Amino acid sequence: MKLKVTHTSLRTAHLRKLAWTIFLLVWAGVCEGQQIIWAKVYPLAKDDLIRSIAKDNFGNMYAAGRTGRAVYNPTPDLNQQGFLMKIDSNGDTLFTQYFGQYGEIFSLVVDPFNVVRINYVTNSFVPGQDQRLILIQMSEQGFVFKRDTIPFRAGFQPNSCIMGKDSSLIITGSIPKTGAASQLSMFFLRVQKDDTIDSWIELNPGHPNCVANKVEQLPNGHYLVSGTVGSRIGSYELNEDGSNPVFKQWYQTPDLSNMTSGYVGKVGTKSSFIGGDGGPCLVANYDSISNKKWMHKEVGVLYPPQGMTDGGVVYGFNPNLPPYNVFFKRAPDSTTTWYMNIDDSLQTRGIVGSIEVKAYTYFDDQSAIFAGTIYQGSSINQRDPFFMRVANVGTPVTSLTKPKRGTLTNETLAPWPNPSGGTLYLKQHFDKAEVHFYTVSGREVQTDTVRFGQPINISSFSPGLYLYRAVIDGKPFSGKLMRD
Question: What is the pTM of this model?
Answer without folding.
Answer: 0.73
